[in-house]
């Protein structure tokens, strides 16, 4: 394979015997393996790393061909290139020459080619794992893919920005516009004005986003001295205080003293 520029064999004489994703079935001692998660190379010789990296895993205990014992990859070295990519060198001859935690420079020896594990002859099974998913190593070996740590950026979900000088509040169960206004110490009218899209302020839904006008504390109109429910009921009875008639009066009363206050006023009015 003269196209390989990132060599994995010290002699730079790599010859591919099986490509990644090969539609192949190999049966060995009654066990069958389908497909191919790496790329296989011959001829026998020293294996080198094509990238700087840190050894994160080594297996060295497999004496030869081993089938169905969890040792399909035989003796191996896993080398982390960066947070995203790991290189795997498999079926190595027994006798590790690197240790976990060891840092290797490009071109350093990783091990000697062997035929340990699920293997039908001396070869190197080389894998590249991208976030632990095996990918085709060939584009990398041919210099067409760089193993950079940068992961593809998922474009952020863009919401339209809130109107100027407002923040956002998501409606939860039990909320009403009146309660939200109280929570943020706002006049109901100011809250309604910041949410022109809400046609009926009595109809808001859980999960709905409400614009909360950011009124600087110094500009919040001081709450006028609170009149008692009795005083307000008397004013309404006499047509004073500018409370007007229902239904507008209901919202005014709620904005003034809350839902319970309005209820109290209404009960008093009913008795008058
Ligand atoms: Zn293989």
Describe the protein.
This protein is α+β, with helices and mostly antiparallel strands. It folds into three domains: 15-141, Glucose Permease (Domain IIA) (Distorted Sandwich); 162-222, Membrane-bound Lytic Murein Transglycosylase D, Chain A (Roll), CATH 3.10.350.10; 223-272, no CATH class. The chain contains six helices and 14 strands. Strand 7 (75-80) and strand 8 (85-92) form a beta hairpin. The radius of gyration is 37 Å and the shape is rod-shaped. Zinc ion binds at residues 18, 36, 38, 40, 125.
Task: Describe the structure concisely.
The chain has 272 residues and is an alpha+beta fold.
Which features does this protein show?
rod-shaped; 18% helix; binds zinc ion; alpha+beta; two-stranded antiparallel ribbon; 24% strand; Membrane-bound Lytic Murein Transglycosylase D, Chain A; 272 residues
């Amino acid at each position: 394979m003269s196209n390989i520029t990132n060599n994995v064999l010290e002699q730079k004489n790599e010859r591919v015997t099986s490509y990644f994703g090969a539609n192949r079935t190999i049966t060995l001692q009654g066990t069958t393996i389908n497909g191919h998660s790496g790329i296989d190379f011959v001829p026998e010789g020293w294996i080198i790393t094509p990238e700087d990296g840190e050894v994160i895993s080594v297996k060295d205990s497999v004496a030869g061909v081993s089938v169905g014992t969890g040792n399909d990859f035989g003796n191996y070295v896993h080398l982390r290139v960066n947070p995203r990519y790991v290189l795997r060198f498999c079926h190595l001859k027994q006798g590790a020459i690197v240790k976990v935690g060891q840092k290797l420079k490009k071109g350093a020896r990783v091990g000697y080619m062997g035929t340990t594990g699920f293997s039908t002859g001396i070869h190197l099974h080389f894998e590249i794992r991208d976030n632990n998913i095996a990918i085709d190593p060939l584009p990398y070996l041919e210099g067409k893919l760089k193993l950079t740590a940068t992961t593809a950026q998922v474009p952020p979900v863009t919401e339209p920005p809130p109107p100027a000088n407002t923040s956002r509040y998501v409606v939860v169960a039990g909320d009403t516009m009146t309660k939200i206004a109280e929570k943020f110490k706002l006049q109901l009218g100011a809250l309604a004005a910041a949410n022109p899209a809400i046609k009926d302020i009595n109809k808001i839904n859980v999960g709905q986003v409400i614009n909360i006008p950011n009124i600087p504390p110094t500009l919040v109109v001081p709450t006028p001295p609170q009149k008692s429910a009795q005083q307000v009921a008397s004013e309404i009875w006499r047509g004073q205080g500018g409370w007007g008639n229902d239904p507008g009066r209901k919202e005014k009363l709620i904005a003034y003293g809350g839902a319970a206050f309005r209820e109290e006023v209404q009960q008093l009015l009913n008795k008058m």
